[in-house]
Amino acid sequence: MDVYKYIVLGDADVGKTSLILQWIDGTFQLKPENIDYKSRILEIGESTIKLQIADTAGQERFRTLTSSYFRETDVIMVVFDLTVAESWKNVTTWIDESTKYANDDALIFLVGNKIDLVEEEADARLVSSDDVQKYIENRGLAGYLETSAKSGKNVDELFMGLVKRLMDRDAGVAAPPPVTKTTPAKVEQVRKRRCLLF
Ligand code: GDP
Ligand code: MG
Fold it and tell me: Would you say the CB of residue 32 lies under 6 angstroms from ligand 1?
Protein backbone atom coordinates (compact mmCIF):
# COMPACT_ATOMS: atom_id res chain seq x y z
CA MET A 1 0.00 0.00 0.00
CA ASP A 2 1.29 3.47 -0.87
CA VAL A 3 1.50 5.88 2.04
CA TYR A 4 1.39 9.59 1.44
CA LYS A 5 2.36 11.94 4.21
CA TYR A 6 0.95 15.45 4.49
CA ILE A 7 1.88 18.05 7.05
CA VAL A 8 -0.23 21.09 7.84
CA LEU A 9 1.59 24.27 8.86
CA GLY A 10 0.66 27.86 9.52
CA ASP A 11 -0.02 30.31 12.33
CA ALA A 12 -2.14 29.40 15.34
CA ASP A 13 -5.91 29.63 14.80
CA VAL A 14 -5.90 29.67 11.01
CA GLY A 15 -7.86 26.38 11.05
CA LYS A 16 -5.25 23.66 10.51
CA THR A 17 -6.77 21.18 12.97
CA SER A 18 -10.26 22.07 11.72
CA LEU A 19 -9.37 21.31 8.10
CA ILE A 20 -8.04 17.89 9.07
CA LEU A 21 -11.09 17.08 11.20
CA GLN A 22 -13.48 18.28 8.49
CA TRP A 23 -11.89 16.06 5.88
CA ILE A 24 -11.40 12.98 8.05
CA ASP A 25 -14.53 13.05 10.24
CA GLY A 26 -16.81 15.59 8.55
CA THR A 27 -17.05 17.56 11.80
CA PHE A 28 -16.42 21.18 12.76
CA GLN A 29 -15.80 22.46 16.29
CA LEU A 30 -15.29 25.85 17.88
CA LYS A 31 -12.41 24.60 20.01
CA PRO A 32 -10.87 21.55 18.43
CA GLU A 33 -8.27 19.69 20.48
CA ASN A 34 -4.97 19.51 18.67
CA ILE A 35 -4.17 16.14 17.20
CA ASP A 36 -0.87 14.45 16.39
CA TYR A 37 -1.97 12.99 13.13
CA LYS A 38 -4.92 11.34 11.44
CA SER A 39 -5.01 8.72 8.72
CA ARG A 40 -7.50 7.78 6.07
CA ILE A 41 -7.44 4.86 3.68
CA LEU A 42 -8.53 5.63 0.13
CA GLU A 43 -9.49 3.24 -2.65
CA ILE A 44 -8.74 4.93 -5.93
CA GLY A 45 -9.22 2.77 -8.99
CA GLU A 46 -7.03 -0.28 -8.45
CA SER A 47 -4.90 1.39 -5.78
CA THR A 48 -5.21 1.49 -2.01
CA ILE A 49 -3.59 4.55 -0.53
CA LYS A 50 -3.04 5.52 3.05
CA LEU A 51 -3.00 9.21 3.67
CA GLN A 52 -1.32 10.28 6.89
CA ILE A 53 -1.87 13.88 7.88
CA ALA A 54 0.24 15.45 10.61
CA ASP A 55 -1.05 18.40 12.59
CA THR A 56 1.38 20.82 14.23
CA ALA A 57 -0.16 20.18 17.65
CA GLY A 58 0.43 23.61 19.12
CA GLN A 59 4.05 23.94 18.05
CA GLU A 60 3.12 26.86 15.81
CA ARG A 61 3.56 29.18 18.76
CA PHE A 62 7.16 28.24 19.24
CA ARG A 63 8.34 27.54 15.71
CA THR A 64 10.22 24.58 17.06
CA LEU A 65 9.51 22.11 14.29
CA THR A 66 12.37 19.70 13.92
CA SER A 67 13.79 18.09 10.83
CA SER A 68 12.35 14.69 11.84
CA TYR A 69 8.87 16.17 11.55
CA PHE A 70 9.47 16.81 7.85
CA ARG A 71 10.98 13.43 7.02
CA GLU A 72 9.40 11.65 4.03
CA THR A 73 6.79 14.36 3.66
CA ASP A 74 4.98 14.41 0.31
CA VAL A 75 2.82 17.48 0.84
CA ILE A 76 3.33 20.58 2.92
CA MET A 77 0.10 22.53 3.28
CA VAL A 78 0.71 26.05 4.44
CA VAL A 79 -2.53 27.49 5.78
CA PHE A 80 -3.40 31.12 6.45
CA ASP A 81 -6.62 32.84 7.47
CA LEU A 82 -8.11 35.01 4.69
CA THR A 83 -9.34 37.41 7.37
CA VAL A 84 -6.02 37.80 9.24
CA ALA A 85 -3.31 39.66 7.30
CA GLU A 86 -0.59 38.64 9.75
CA SER A 87 -1.18 34.95 9.02
CA TRP A 88 -0.58 35.64 5.32
CA LYS A 89 2.59 37.62 6.05
CA ASN A 90 3.93 34.66 8.03
CA VAL A 91 3.44 32.22 5.15
CA THR A 92 6.95 33.02 3.92
CA THR A 93 8.45 32.02 7.26
CA TRP A 94 6.57 28.74 7.20
CA ILE A 95 7.71 27.97 3.68
CA ASP A 96 11.31 28.88 4.46
CA GLU A 97 11.23 26.61 7.51
CA SER A 98 9.82 23.79 5.40
CA THR A 99 12.28 24.06 2.57
CA LYS A 100 15.16 23.83 5.03
CA TYR A 101 14.14 20.30 5.98
CA ALA A 102 11.71 18.82 3.47
CA ASN A 103 12.48 16.61 0.48
CA ASP A 104 13.06 18.57 -2.71
CA ASP A 105 10.12 16.90 -4.42
CA ALA A 106 7.61 17.69 -1.66
CA LEU A 107 4.65 19.69 -2.95
CA ILE A 108 4.10 22.98 -1.14
CA PHE A 109 0.47 23.99 -1.39
CA LEU A 110 -1.09 27.20 -0.04
CA VAL A 111 -4.49 27.22 1.62
CA GLY A 112 -6.51 30.38 2.34
CA ASN A 113 -9.00 29.20 4.96
CA LYS A 114 -12.22 30.66 6.41
CA ILE A 115 -13.67 31.60 3.02
CA ASP A 116 -17.12 31.29 4.64
CA LEU A 117 -16.41 34.51 6.58
CA VAL A 118 -15.59 36.29 3.30
CA GLU A 119 -18.73 34.91 1.66
CA GLU A 120 -20.77 36.30 4.55
CA GLU A 121 -19.08 39.69 4.53
CA ALA A 122 -16.83 40.67 1.63
CA ASP A 123 -15.01 43.27 3.75
CA ALA A 124 -13.68 40.48 5.93
CA ARG A 125 -11.18 39.52 3.20
CA LEU A 126 -7.75 40.90 4.02
CA VAL A 127 -5.75 38.84 1.52
CA SER A 128 -6.37 39.15 -2.22
CA SER A 129 -6.42 36.01 -4.35
CA ASP A 130 -4.37 37.84 -6.98
CA ASP A 131 -1.55 38.51 -4.52
CA VAL A 132 -1.50 34.84 -3.56
CA GLN A 133 -1.47 33.72 -7.21
CA LYS A 134 1.48 35.99 -7.94
CA TYR A 135 3.26 34.66 -4.90
CA ILE A 136 2.86 31.01 -5.84
CA GLU A 137 4.15 31.74 -9.35
CA ASN A 138 7.16 33.61 -8.00
CA ARG A 139 8.04 30.88 -5.55
CA GLY A 140 7.14 27.97 -7.80
CA LEU A 141 4.66 26.48 -5.36
CA ALA A 142 2.25 23.68 -6.25
CA GLY A 143 -0.96 25.70 -6.03
CA TYR A 144 -3.60 27.46 -3.98
CA LEU A 145 -7.17 26.89 -2.83
CA GLU A 146 -9.56 28.91 -0.69
CA THR A 147 -11.37 26.67 1.77
CA SER A 148 -13.77 26.59 4.68
CA ALA A 149 -13.25 24.02 7.37
CA LYS A 150 -16.64 25.17 8.66
CA SER A 151 -18.80 24.65 5.57
CA GLY A 152 -16.48 22.08 4.03
CA LYS A 153 -16.03 24.14 0.87
CA ASN A 154 -13.06 22.94 -1.21
CA VAL A 155 -11.83 20.68 1.60
CA ASP A 156 -12.22 17.44 -0.33
CA GLU A 157 -10.84 19.12 -3.47
CA LEU A 158 -7.80 20.13 -1.45
CA PHE A 159 -6.91 16.74 0.03
CA MET A 160 -8.00 14.63 -2.95
CA GLY A 161 -6.54 16.97 -5.56
CA LEU A 162 -3.17 16.55 -3.93
CA VAL A 163 -3.53 12.75 -3.78
CA LYS A 164 -4.11 12.77 -7.53
CA ARG A 165 -1.07 14.97 -8.07
CA LEU A 166 1.06 12.54 -6.05
CA MET A 167 -0.31 9.53 -7.90
CA ASP A 168 0.55 11.20 -11.20
CA ARG A 169 4.00 12.06 -9.89
CA ASP A 170 4.63 8.47 -8.84
CA ALA A 171 3.19 7.07 -12.05
CA GLY A 172 5.58 9.35 -13.91
CA VAL A 173 8.56 7.99 -12.01
CA ALA A 174 7.61 4.37 -12.56
CA ALA A 175 6.24 4.82 -16.05
CA PRO A 176 7.85 3.09 -19.01
CA PRO A 177 9.61 5.25 -21.59
CA PRO A 178 7.35 7.29 -23.88
CA VAL A 179 5.19 5.24 -26.22
CA THR A 180 7.11 4.18 -29.30
CA LYS A 181 6.24 2.32 -32.47
CA THR A 182 7.07 -0.97 -30.79
CA THR A 183 4.20 -0.62 -28.32
CA PRO A 184 1.35 -1.63 -30.67
CA ALA A 185 3.33 -4.67 -31.73
CA LYS A 186 3.61 -5.80 -28.11
CA VAL A 187 -0.12 -5.40 -27.62
CA GLU A 188 -0.64 -7.42 -30.77
CA GLN A 189 1.55 -10.20 -29.39
CA VAL A 190 -0.37 -10.34 -26.13
CA ARG A 191 -3.63 -10.56 -28.04
CA LYS A 192 -2.29 -13.38 -30.16
CA ARG A 193 -1.16 -15.33 -27.11
CA ARG A 194 -4.59 -14.90 -25.56
CA CYS A 195 -6.16 -16.20 -28.74
CA LEU A 196 -4.02 -19.28 -28.57
CA LEU A 197 -5.08 -19.92 -25.00
CA PHE A 198 -8.74 -19.72 -25.82
P1 GDP B 1 -5.35 25.87 14.31
O2 GDP B 1 -4.79 26.53 15.53
O3 GDP B 1 -4.72 26.38 13.06
O4 GDP B 1 -5.33 24.36 14.40
O5 GDP B 1 -6.87 26.34 14.20
P6 GDP B 1 -8.19 25.56 14.70
O7 GDP B 1 -8.54 24.47 13.80
O8 GDP B 1 -8.04 25.25 16.16
O9 GDP B 1 -9.27 26.71 14.50
C10 GDP B 1 -9.16 27.97 15.17
C11 GDP B 1 -10.55 28.60 15.30
O12 GDP B 1 -11.05 28.95 14.02
C13 GDP B 1 -11.60 27.66 15.91
O14 GDP B 1 -12.49 28.43 16.68
C15 GDP B 1 -12.31 27.09 14.69
O16 GDP B 1 -13.62 26.71 14.99
C17 GDP B 1 -12.27 28.28 13.74
N18 GDP B 1 -12.24 27.89 12.31
C19 GDP B 1 -11.42 27.01 11.74
N20 GDP B 1 -11.64 26.92 10.41
C21 GDP B 1 -12.65 27.77 10.16
C22 GDP B 1 -13.36 28.14 8.97
O23 GDP B 1 -13.11 27.66 7.86
N24 GDP B 1 -14.35 29.08 9.10
C25 GDP B 1 -14.66 29.63 10.30
N26 GDP B 1 -15.66 30.54 10.31
N27 GDP B 1 -14.02 29.32 11.42
C28 GDP B 1 -13.02 28.40 11.36
MG1 MG C 1 -4.51 23.19 15.87
Answer: yes
For 93-126, the pLDDT digits (tens) are 999 988 888 998 899 999 999 999 999 999 999 9
Shortest-distance atom of ligand 1 to CA 21: 7
Q: Give the number of the ligand closest to the Cα of residue 15.
A: 1
pTM: 0.86
Does residue 80 contact residue 123 with C-beta atoms inside 8 Å?
no
CATH class (in words) of the domain with range 2-192: alpha beta
pLDDT for the residue 62: 53
Q: Which atom of ligand 1 is nearest to the CA of 34?
A: 4
d(CA 86, CA 153): 23
pLDDT tens across 57-84, in order? 666 665 667 778 888 899 999 999 999 9
C-alpha–C-alpha distance, residues 175 and 95, integer Å: 30
Query: If you measure from the C-alpha of residue 193 to the centroid of ligand 2, how many angstroms do you get, rounded to a whole number?
Result: 58
pLDDT at residue 65 in the model: 73
Q: Is 88 helix (H, G, I), strand (E, B) or coil?
A: helix
Ligand 1 pocket check for 17: Cβ under 6 Å:
yes
Query: Where are the chain's structural domains?
Result: 2-192
Pairing of strands 47-54, 37-44: antiparallel
